[in-house]
């Protein structure tokens, strides 16, 4: 009988410790925030620089968010990393605009698709951001390039938690 009581005490103690550890790890776990969709596409017009399909990829960490854009316009010359100054302005469904900006880009060879980002922005829970009506402005070798979406992004706007 003594062995049975000891086993029950150890089993109860182990279950209690496991429960406490699970509760503590949930309390300190970061909030699961997500933007949906994480990837969208648009068709963009970049004036004399061309245009076509572009892929937008968004991430979220609390109120901080990023957007990376891979366009179908090509680099006219080799571009070094972090050499393009970019500003992407989204239309916010709740009114106004939300801006993402930065000077981050990978190194690109002549003819590579121009990719910028991740560009940094600030979002609020429930923000619904659409590229159509906004614009991407890039400065490459001192030349300003403005791209605008020719229609809504697909599959829909970015919605932030």
Write up what this structure looks like:
By secondary structure, the protein is of the alpha+beta class. 17% of the residues lie in helices and 48% in strands. It has two domains: 1-30; 35-160, Immunoglobulin-like. Strands 1, 2, 3, 4, 5, 6, 7, 8, 9 and 10 form a ten-stranded antiparallel β-sheet that branches. It is globular.
Low-pLDDT parts are 5-32
Question: What is the global morphology?
Answer: globular
Named CATH topology of the largest domain: Immunoglobulin-like
CATH class of the largest domain: Mainly Beta
Strand content: over 45%
Order of helices and strands: HEEEEEEEEEE
Q: Roughly how many Å apart are the termini?
A: 55 Å
Helix content: 10-25%
Mean pLDDT: 85
The total strand number stands at 10
Tally of helical runs: 1
Short structural description:
The protein is of the alpha+beta class. The protein is 17% helix and 48% strand.
Name a few traits of the molecule.
161 residues; alpha+beta; Immunoglobulin-like; 2 domains; ten-stranded antiparallel beta sheet; 1 helix; 17% helix; globular; signal; Lipoprotein
Secondary structure elements and pairings:
Blueprint: H1 2-28, E1 35-36, E2 39-45, E3 51-61, E4 64-74, E5 85-92, E6 97-102, E7 113-122, E8 128-140, E9 143-149, E10 158-160
Antiparallel strand pairs: 1-10, 2-3, 2-9, 3-4, 4-7, 5-6, 5-8, 8-9, 8-10
């Amino acid at each position: 009988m003594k062995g049975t009581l000891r086993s029950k005490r150890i089993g109860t103690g182990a279950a209690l410790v496991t429960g406490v550890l699970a509760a503590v790890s949930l309390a300190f776990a970061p909030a699961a925030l997500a933007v949906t969709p994480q990837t969208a596409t648009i068709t963009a017009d970049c004036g004399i620089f061309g245009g076509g399909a572009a892929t937008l990829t968004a991430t979220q960490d609390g109120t901080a968010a990023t957007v990376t854009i891979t366009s179908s316009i090509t680099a006219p010359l080799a571009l070094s990393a972090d050499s393009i100054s970019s500003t992407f302005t989204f239309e916010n469904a709740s009114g106004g605009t939300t801006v993402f900006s930065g000077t981050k880009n990978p190194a690109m060879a002549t003819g590579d698709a121009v990719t910028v980002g991740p560009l940094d922005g600030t979002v609020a829970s429930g923000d619904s951001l659409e590229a159509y009506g906004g614009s991407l402005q890039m400065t490459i070798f001192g030349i300003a390039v403005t791209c605008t979406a020719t229609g809504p992004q697909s599959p829909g706007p970015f919605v932030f938690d």
